[in-house]
Amino acid sequence: MTEAWPWLALAGLGAFHGLNPGMGWLFAVALGLNRHDRRVVWLSMGPIALGHALSVAAVAAAFVAAGLLIDAGAVRIASGLILIGWAFYHWAYGHRHRVRFGMQAGLIGLGVWSFLMATAHGAGLMLWPALMPLCIRWRC
What we know:
Elements: H1 5-19, H2 25-35, H3 38-43, H4 45-69, H5 72-93, H6 107-121, H7 128-138
Helix pairs in contact: 4-6
């Protein structure tokens, strides 16, 4: 049963993220309001979900490919150092580099935006704790 816990935690996090109205729903609602059509809000959920799914698949594929070439201990240390460095950067400079622009996109643009933001914010990175034991066992 212990092997199932990372996958159950992953499913729970994914469900929380998808059902939480504070996540990508705001862009779906904004697009619906911009088009003056309630149906667009529900239609935009597909591109958002597809963008996230493609991001998760790309990051998982990169993880497996990196696992074939790089030692797992080195990946853990490098990931931790990158995360700490990113936190220090945002602590020092994060609020000075705000980009202000409006969102005028269609459903394809929304899907591309979803892919980019999911990749940048780590939607696929949350798979790594679940994939790491599998890669260690299978030596991927």
